[in-house]
Amino acid sequence: MLIDIKNLYKIYNEGQESEVRALDGVSLQIDRGEFVAIIGQSGSGKSTLMNILGCLDIPTYGDYHLDGTDVTELTDKQLAHIRNKQIGFIFQGYNLIPALSARENVELPLIYQGVGMGQRAQRAMESLERVGMADRADHKPSEMSGGQQQRVAIARAIAAHPPIIMADEPTGALDSKTGRHVLDILHSLHEDGST
Predict the structure, then answer these.
(1) What is the pLDDT of residues 163-183, one digit of tens each?
(2) How far apart are CA 131 and CA 108, in angstroms?
(3) What is the DSSP string of 85-117?
(4) Per-residue model confidence (pLDDT) at position 96
(5) Which residues contact 77 (CB under 8 A, 6 or more apart)?
(6) At the top level of CATH, which class does the domain 1-74 belong to?
(7) Is it true that 1-74 and 87-195 share their CATH fold?
(8) What is the pLDDT of residues 23-73, one digit of tens each?
(9) Which of 61, 69, 145, 169 could form a disulfide with 92 if both were Cys (CB 3.0 to 4.6 A apart)?
(10) Which residues does UniProt call coiled coil (predicted)?
(11) Mean pLDDT, the chain, as a whole number?
């Protein structure tokens, strides 16, 4: 079991009048190689769940095991290591650095992994090629459409070859044609072995 959560809770302002239960007893198992979509209304806790599964946040209560490791017992440094090595993130807002080119944005996670400059540039270009953005490698985010920025964000997520890719509403801000293209890229990544 790659991801195993049991009875997971995320409660904000616990015990106060303004208490919010973003997650209330969620249980979920995801095997390696699965393609899973979590759907629900706005405000239903999807992003909160992804943030916990992606080790960006911790649950208030409950059990979370990632590839056999009890994530709830890890230090911030250990969680950062997992995020860096095992998880690629694709956010609805792209989260690209405005001052950097597409290639430089894609290289960022590789820098944190200590990948050398030559290999970093090669992997960044391979990832941009994979999402059809190699010809825009030297463009800054302001010089790209929303769909192009999202494809650069996907390239950044896959450049480090993480076994897990998490996407939070990756097509939410895109037109239907571009959204379909992004989903096709995600399905292609799944076929190549990403969960």
Answers:
(1) 899 988 887 777 788 778 878
(2) 17
(3) HHEEEEETT----TTS-HHHHHHHHHHHTT--H
(4) 96
(5) none
(6) alpha beta
(7) yes
(8) 999 999 999 989 998 988 888 999 999 999 999 999 999 999 999 999 999
(9) 169
(10) none
(11) 91
The one-character DSSP state at 195 is -
Rounded CA-CA distance 177/47 in Å is 24
Residue with token string 């609805």: 92
Tell me the domain boundaries of the chain. 1-74, 87-195
Strand 20-30: give its sheet, edge to edge.
20-30, 3-12, 61-66, 69-70
Give the architecture (CATH level 2) of 87-195: 3-Layer(aba) Sandwich (3.40)
List the structure tokens of 63.
Answer: 């059990």
Q: Residue 51 is inside which H or E element, if any?
A: helix 46-53
